[in-house]
Structures are given as C-alpha cells and as structure tokens.
Amino acid sequence: MNSDARKARLCLGGAIVCVLFLIETYVAHQSRPNDASVYVWSGLSIVALTLLVLASWFHAQSKP
After folding, report:
1. Maximum separation of any 2 CA atoms in the chain, in Å
2. Integer Cα distance of 46 and 28 in angstroms
3. What is the distance between the alpha carbons of residues 59 and 5, in angstroms, rounded to a whole number?
4. CA atoms of 2 and 29, how far apart (whole Å)
5. Where are the chain's structural domains?
6. Sign of torsion, CA 15 16 19 24?
7. By Cβ atoms counted within 10 A, which residue in 24, 31, 48, 49 is the most buried?
C-alpha cells in the first residue's frame, strides 16, 4: 500500500468517527437539549466533509 492509499484510509476513518459523533450528539440532544448543539453539529459536519474530500483526493492520487 502506498502513502496516498494509507492517507485515504485514515481520512475515511476520521470521517466515519465524525459521523458517529454526529449521531451521538443528536441522540444526546433529544434527552438534554442544548443551544450549542447546532455549533457542534456544524463543526463536525465541516470536518467530516473535509475528510471525505481529502479521502477521495488521496484515493484518486493513489491510482497508477
């Protein structure tokens, strides 16, 4: 596995973790609403989308 493929897998893993945190904060918001939840969701969404874009970029670069 080359370096770009490894980076793509790491970025994809990070994006999956962000999505899991998004789900967890959504469920927690149902039982204990918080005004800051919107900001947390926005931040996690931005990070997840950025990591998905980077994962696709590194995946495309890893092809010979």
Report:
1. 50
2. 20
3. 6
4. 41
5. 3-62
6. negative
7. 48
Question: E strands along 1-64, which residues?
Answer: none
Is the distance from CB of 18 to CB of 47 less than 8 angstroms?
Answer: yes
Cβ–Cβ < 8 Å for 18, 53: no
Angle, helices 37-62/3-31, rounded to nearest 10 degrees: 160
Q: Tell me the C-alpha to C-alpha distance, in Å, between residue 14 and each of 10, 20, 21, 23, 41.
A: 6, 10, 11, 14, 15
pTM for this structure?
0.89
- Given a contact cutoff of 8 angstroms between Cβ atoms, the answer to whether 58 and 4 are in contact is yes
